[in-house]
């Protein structure tokens, strides 16, 4: 079993304090019920998508998330209000000592939003150098502030001193660097007076909520029309009862969005079925194109994924997606931690998406700059094991993570054994067998031999790969193993019987 570093435990403990109820109980997809239920509002397409756009999504490996909005001005602390662990939620802070009119104060912050240092090209180039193949950008978070000049709202970048369309700049700059763009969109909208979390009951409430639904629909089509280069939406804030009860509306909306933008990618966090089941419908089938529940968490077992596509979105501090001006109270993940998580995700067929929370002037924090550089340097050397790879059907081991591409296996080593012998377990019945091993970073070929360690009744064979004493690495490194179709001659190795 892989040991979890102490700092991870701490980080998970701290972050656990702020997890929502769904996240706390997350252990993978629910078991499929024995009997199928007839559903009118289940998945729009049965099974996994096989088109080129979805295949491209599968091959990203590494992505960047950006949470940017008015909350960046506060940076987790404003007027004595502190929300360092979820800085983008600061508006909803309602402790006993909340200043009078705190929400109104927040709602006026946009009048100061003027990120003079913002340069989308600089961000896009940094993301490219880090190795990100896609970006997810917050067009509108829960506070309702639109980072594009939406004609359906009076609370947008157009009304701020900055005025210019930020979404357009992001889309253009990232697309120019060859990075695919996905737009984050929160259904929760604290600014819209027709938004509500509880289900509407009276005729008046219903009419008002219908207005909110229409506004949401209009904004989504506006985004598609304004920025046709985008590849998908990343939805959030879809857990309110009012939204859950609007399943007929959301079903039609998803259908229409997809029809308007062929290839559009939407995860499992957009809508639910008629029984209120989110992510997976009442039959345990995935809603949307990929599983979107892996927020600040990673599956312990590949089996938990049930063969679905997925992404893991991750913060650098324990929690907190928007800018946090003071990281010092927390453990912040190192590039080593993040590369470990990246390879954990890709080894299980998922994408790893690292979040950045730029400040109110348009700068990434120095810590983010450093991590982007360090990750980029590593990925530059080891990208072959990261991009376009799939899960390898081998038993997990304590050295690190396997990924696979065709007849090449990659083992990214985080824990180097003291005897320099990497021992890989394979079933004797395997039909693909290793023929050569080398260090990815240098191409140096490595000694490899099949070993029967003589464990009684063992159905496995062991492939021993020797690391040269002269090879020293301060970083995780990758062993590249070429396989070919064939059988291991196990009979020779099985002479001793009880
Ligand atoms: O409440 C948000 C949170 O602020 C952040 O945007 C994350 C990103 O995945 N999503 C929500 C919590 O699940």
Structure described in brief:
The protein is of the alpha/beta class. It has twelve helices and 17 strands. The protein folds into two domains: 6-385, Glycosidases (TIM Barrel, Alpha-Beta Barrel), CATH 3.20.20.80; 400-492, Immunoglobulin-like.
Characterization of this structure:
Helix 6 crosses helix 7. The protein contains 12 helices and 17 strands. The protein is an alpha/beta fold and 498 residues long. It starts with 5 loop residues before the first helix and ends in a 13-residue tail after the last strand. The N terminus and C terminus are likely disordered. The chain is globular. The strands form 3 sheets. The chain has an 8-stranded parallel β-sheet with strand order 7-6-5-4-1-10-9-8, with helices on both faces. Strands 11-12-17-14-15-16-13 form a 7-stranded antiparallel β-sheet. A two-stranded antiparallel ribbon has the order 2-3. 40% of the residues are buried. Bound molecules: ligand FHN. Ligand FHN binds next to loops. The site of ligand FHN has 8 residues, from loops.
């Amino acid at each position: 079993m892989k040991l979890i570093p102490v700092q991870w435990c701490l980080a998970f403990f701290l972050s656990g304090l702020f997890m929502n109820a769904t996240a706390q109980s997350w252990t993978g997809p629910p078991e499929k019920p024995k009997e199928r239920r007839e559903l009118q509002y289940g998945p729009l397409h049965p099974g996994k998508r096989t088109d080129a756009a979805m295949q491209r999504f599968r091959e990203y490996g590494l992505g960047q998330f950006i949470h940017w909005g008015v909350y960046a001005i506060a940076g987790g602390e404003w007027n004595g209000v502190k929300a360092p662990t979820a800085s983008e939620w600061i508006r909803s802070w309602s402790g006993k000592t909340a200043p009078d009119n705190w929400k109104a104060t927040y709602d006026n912050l946009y009048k100061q939003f003027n990120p003079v240092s913002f340069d989308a090209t600089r961000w896009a180039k940094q993301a490219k150098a880090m190795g990100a193949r896609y970006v997810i950008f917050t067009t509108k978070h829960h506070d309702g502030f639109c980072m594009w000049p939406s004609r359906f709202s009076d609370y947008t970048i157009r009304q701020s001193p900055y005025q210019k369309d930020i979404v357009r700049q992001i889309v253009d700059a990232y697309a120019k660097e060859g990075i695919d763009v996905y737009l984050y969109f929160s259904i929760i909208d604290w600014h819209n007076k027709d938004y509500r979390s509880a289900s509407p009951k009276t005729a008046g409430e219903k009419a008002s909520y219908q207005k909110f639904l229409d506004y949401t629909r209009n904004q989504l089509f506006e985004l598609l029309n304004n920025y046709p280069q985008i590849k998908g939406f990343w939805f959030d804030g879809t857990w309110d009862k009012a939204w859950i009860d609007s399943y007929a509306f959301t079903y039609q909306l998803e259908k229409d969005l997809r029809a308007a933008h062929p290839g559009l990618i939407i995860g499992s966090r957009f809508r639910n079925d008629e029984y209120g089941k989110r992510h997976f419908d009442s039959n345990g089938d995935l809603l949307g194109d990929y599983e979107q529940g892996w927020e600040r968490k990673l599956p312990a077992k590949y089996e938990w994924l049930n063969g679905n596509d997925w992404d893991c979105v991750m913060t650098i501090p324990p929690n907190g997606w928007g800018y946090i001006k003071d990281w010092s109270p927390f453990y912040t993940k190192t590039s080593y931690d993040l590369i470990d998580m990246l390879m954990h995700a890709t080894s299980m067929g998922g994408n790893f998406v690292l979040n950045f929370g730029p400040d109110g002037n348009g700068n990434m924090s120095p810590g983010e700059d450093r991590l982007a550089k360090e990750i980029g340097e590593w990925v530059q050397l080891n990208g072959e094991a990261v991009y376009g790879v799939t899960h390898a059907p081998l038993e997990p081991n304590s050295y690190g993570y396997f990924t696979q591409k065709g007849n090449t296996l990659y083992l990214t080593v985080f824990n180097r054994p003291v005897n320099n012998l990497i021992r890989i377990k394979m079933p004797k019945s395997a039909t693909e067998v290793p023929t050569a091993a080398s260090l990815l970073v240098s191409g140096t070929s490595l000694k490899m031999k099949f070993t029967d360690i003589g464990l009684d009744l063992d159905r496995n064979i062991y492939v021993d790969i020797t690391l040269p004493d002269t090879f020293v690495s301060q970083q995780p490194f990758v062993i590249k193993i070429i396989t070919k179709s064939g059988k291991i001659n196990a009979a020779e190795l099985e002479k001793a019987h009880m």
